[in-house]
Amino acid sequence: MGSKAIISGVHDTQVGALPDSTCMSLHAEAALGALADAGLAVSDIDGLLTAYSFASPQLMLGGVLGEYIGLRPKVNASIAMGGMTGGLLVRHAESLVRSGRCRHVLCVTGDNRLTGMGDKVQAALADVGHPQYEQPYGMSVPAAFAMAAQVYFHEGWLNGDHLAAVAVNQRTNAALHPQSHMKKPITMDDVRKSKVIASPLRMLDCCLVSDGGAAAVVSAGDTARDLPKRAVELLGIGEGHTHEHIFAAPSLVDFGCKESAADALAQAGLKHQDVDCAHIYDCFTSTLLITLESMGFYGRGEAGPAALAGEFAIGGRFPVNTNGGLLSYGSSGAAGGMFHVVEAVRQLRGECGPRQVKDAEVALAHTLGGIFSGHCSIIMGRA
Amino acid sequence: MAELQAKPMPVPDSISRPYWEGANQGEFRFQRCRACRKAQFYSRYACVHCHSTELQWQVAKGLGRVASFSVIHRAPIAAFMADTPYVLALVDLDEGFRFMCNVLHCDPATVKIGMRVRVCYETRPGSEQKVSQVEPATS
């Protein structure tokens, strides 16, 4: 076992409607920003990991980006595992660095699916449904996630107030971030009265569709001394995979995040209560609460009341999604998860200004793909 | 323009053809493993439980319960807009497997987790293929 890998640089672009952006310009902006943050040049990078694009699909996105920014890496791969991909890029970069295969791996995500796709984006997302056993029934992505929420409602573990509290908290946080997509304040009533999309989920329970990009550089631990900024160590990373389609999920209550979080914490030698802030994939308000319970941060039926009691606020007992998350910061394909990685790193460096969690030493970034299908949990800490 | 777009229809393949042909004949067919005796949905090359390839087709009685559901008010594509609000459900058939369908022939507001349902088959305009669905079981 070598020394821990570190995250040496991060960057996220402005998110929202960016009509002058392209998929590749967002990738380049995020990539070059992360390199500048790490004090590295393009020529220092020996590994490139990328995700996928809906707005501008490529057979070899990594090849296209390498060409676009003049990068000739020794290792180049594109990974497409839906919303969990942002975390997975960091996960595989960590393996490449710890094995000695690479020194500096650049992980880049981004898409312009708001201005680049228009109305086609919801239909493209619904295409994730099984072509024979889901799509003929008009399954939408919100409805698929609502299946789990409905069970939590039925059991009395969640209610509309709990979900609304998550949406309001994250909008409050997003207002403190200069780059966030949605800053307009919302109230509990705004959420509770927003139109039903797929019961029990309403419009303001759903994440945004944004243009944006995000990148991280994962480097060998012994490069930390040369960095301009405080390094953040990757302490433990876990994955969990249980199904692809929601009808084939072994449970509608617990998901692969249970295993991914347990593995990440065990590798880090830490316990749930050691995590100072969590940055969790929140495609829907319910997704966040269900994930927190399934991971064991809260007992069954306790995450919703915690949200209502303000525990997830930046000054609360367990700050969650301090940048506003996918719900209010922005959601740009695989970059949605990478935004969480970027924010976790910034919290541990103490760079978050009005969003700063006091004395944040250990952070969790968690990404999710499919319909609770695949999960990646990353525990990181101040070096 | 909504009426110009057809709903997505299953395109049976060599592994799923018995299931979809069964739907056209009013039979809900599923695979049961000869080795471990467990049922699986959907049909596959091998048993998902024990990986035996000794699979046999059986016909379900067509009775089950709603494991979960959502009433969809915003359709993912135009073809379903006229149906809103419609019920998407996960149904556990008594034979021991789960599938996705719509709950037809009832007020969406009456659908509950745990409610008994019965398989029925929907005919869609412009298609010979019937689609497996459920409706409330009255008895």
Would you write up a description of this structure?
The complex is a heterodimer of chains A (383) and B (139). In chain A, helix 1 (23-38) packs across helix 2 and helix 6 crosses helix 9. Chain A folds into two domains: 6-117 and 210-232, 3-Layer(aba) Sandwich (Peroxisomal Thiolase, Chain A, domain 1), CATH 3.40.47; 136-208 and 235-382, Thiolase/Chalcone synthase (Peroxisomal Thiolase, Chain A, domain 1), CATH 3.40.47.10. Chain A has twelve helices and eleven strands. Chain A has a nine-stranded mixed sheet, with helices on both faces. A two-stranded antiparallel sheet of chain A has the order 5-6. In chain A, 62% of the residues are buried. The model of chain A has no long low-confidence stretch (mean pLDDT 96). Chain A is globular. With 383 residues, chain A is an alpha/beta fold. Helix content of chain A is 34%, strand content 18%. Chain B has 139 residues and is mostly beta strands. Chain B has two domains: 13-60, no CATH class; 61-139, OB fold (Dihydrolipoamide Acetyltransferase, E2P). Helices cover 6% and strands 38% of the residues of chain B. Chain B has one helix spanning 17-24; strands at 28-33, 39-40, 55-60, 63-72, 86-93, 97-102, 116-123, 130-136. Chain B has a five-stranded antiparallel sheet with strand order 6-5-4-7-8. The longest helix of chain B has 8 residues, at 17-24. The radius of gyration of chain B is 16 Å and the shape is globular. Chain B starts with 16 loop residues before the first helix and ends with a strand. The A-B interface holds A 122-123, 125-126, 130-143, 146-148, 150-151, 154, 195-201, 245-248, 252 and B 7-13, 16, 20, 41-42, 67-77, 79-80, 83, 85-86, 88, 90, 98-102, 113, 131.
